[in-house]
Specification:
The chain folds into two domains: 215 residues, Rossmann fold (3-Layer(aba) Sandwich), CATH 3.40.50; 37 residues, no CATH class. It is globular. 48% of the residues lie in helices and 13% in strands. The mean pLDDT is 96. It is an alpha/beta fold. The longest helix has 29 residues. The chain contains eight helices and seven strands. β1, α1 and β2 form a beta-alpha-beta unit. The chain binds nicotinamide-adenine-dinucleotide.
Length: 260
């Protein structure tokens, strides 16, 4: 059982990360929530996790572009909870532009949040995991860690990068009871995706159904979104003893996208 384990999930104030934090808490895992958002709403979510699931939930607002804040987040988690046993690197942003116009600051920001933040969390959490001889490192990559799309230079580079980092970490920690794996979703139904629909309807003069099927789900053979709960279930499986020999893997959950 995962009860009494301690987890840090970056970018968990919304979408996939929030579903992962809640799923872990439901299994009795103490959690560190991280990410941006309205302070009152985050506090409401944090308190709800504690009362619903009877675990400790801490909020840490560390900015994933700041290496010192990231290291401090892991140290604080170890100090307050006793250990970091499960680390889910999930914070991520996207930016879409032709490469010749791609803003340099957007490139740097995406590489920092979507790739380098995972290096900094893993670097800080690894000594404790090695010492305790148990750990689960899970990186939310993307179908874009395996295939590319035009206009997503930074995102595709960062996600391919995290797939490489994941393999290195898996090899280094293989004899310590610590696994490292990537989860690679296709299109996931999150508030972020949902909010794009009205604008895309207007911009392209399409109906809601056309936007969903011809734009968003164009690359996804099942023509269905992945749900955040399906991703959270995969995280729980990767944390289980049944998954102890799964390491260095990049597991697709993309409705068949990368099969084509
Ligand atoms: P989301 O926007 O709902 O959540 C992103 C989270 O990251 C939020 O909590 C946000 O506050 C946090 N964040 C952003 N910048 C941060 C920073 N500088 N420091 C700390 N936290 C920061 O998005 P989501 O769809 O849940 O995405 C989560 C992860 O899943 C990302 O890595 C994304 O690339 C990946 N992903 C999403 C999809 C999808 O279709 N939604 C598909 C494949 C991969």
């Amino acid at each position: 059982s995962l009860a009494k384990r301690n987890a840090v999930v970056t970018g968990s104030t919304s979408g996939i990360g929030l579903a992962v934090v809640r799923a872990l808490a439901k299994e009795g895992v103490n959690v560190v929530l991280n990410g941006f958002g309205d302070a009152a709403e985050i506090e409401k979510e944090r308190a709800a996790i504690e009362t619903e699931f009877g675990v400790t939930a801490i909020y840490d607002g560390a900015d994933m572009t700041k290496p010192e804040e990231i290291a401090a987040m892991i140290q604080n988690a170890e100090a307050k909870l006793g250990s970091v046993d499960i680390l889910v690197n999930n914070a991520g942003i996207q930016f879409v532009s032709p490469i010749e116009d791609f803003p340099i600051e957007k490139w740097n920001q995406i590489i920092a949040i979507d790739l380098s933040s995972a290096f900094h969390t893993i670097r800080a959490a690894t000594p404790g995991m090695k010492k305790r001889r148990w750990g689960r490192i899970i990186n939310t990559a993307s179908a874009h860690s395996l295939v590319a799309s035009p206009f997503k230079a930074a995102y595709v580079a960062a996600k391919h990068g995290i797939a490489g980092l994941n393999k290195v970490v898996a090899l280094e920690l293989a004899t310590y009871g610590v696994t490292a794996n990537c989860i690679s979703p296709g299109y996931v139904w999150t508030p972020l995706v949902e909010k794009q629909i009205p604008d895309t309807m207007k911009a392209r003069n399409l109906t809601r159904e056309q936007v969903i099927n011809d734009v968003l789900l164009q690359a996804q053979p099942t023509k269905e979104f992945v749900t955040v709960d399906q991703i959270a279930a995969l995280v729980l499986f990767l944390c289980s003893d049944a998954a102890a020999q799964i390491t260095g893997s990049n597991i697709s959950i993309d409705g068949g996208w990368t099969a084509g």
